[in-house]
């Protein structure tokens, strides 16, 4: 994004109304009309919070341990692993959201393969969609299944390196 465009957006996104309060641009959020990468942006944040909260059932004092595990669990590689194990359980609508997000143009980080990065973007978009549509039961189910799959995979990898 060019500097002039960025400056314009910064000046106009948070406009004040007549009483000095920040004026919203939209009355409601239509999840179905949001770009897939925006859904993934929300899904990434939700899954991060889910994992961090879930880890408190295992450790409550060592924040560096919590941070290390949460970073590992929410990595593109492990999210892609979870997706590959859950894909048959997804609804047609969720598969469509995944496909759109997977194919969205984005830049993969250096720490994951391009396929894993796009796959994790797809599952994050599903999570974001479910969060924005208040599909709480389905959201918790997919996040918990992903969490369990990833933890089991980490344990499996750890036990194979211990041998």
UniProtKB/TrEMBL annotation:
InterPro entries: Mini3_fam, RNase_III_dom, RNase_III_sf. It comes from the Bacteria. GO terms for biological process: rRNA processing. Keywords: Cytoplasm, Endonuclease, Hydrolase, Magnesium, Nuclease, Ribosome biogenesis, RNA-binding, rRNA processing, rRNA-binding. GO terms for molecular function: ribonuclease III activity; rRNA binding. It is found in: Cytoplasm. Its EC number is 3.1.26.-. The keyword Nuclease applies. PANTHER family: MINI-RIBONUCLEASE 3. Involved in correct processing of both the 5' and 3' ends of 23S rRNA precursor. Processes 30S rRNA precursor transcript even in absence of ribonuclease 3 (Rnc); Rnc processes 30S rRNA into smaller rRNA precursors. Belongs to the MrnC RNase family. This is Mini-ribonuclease 3.
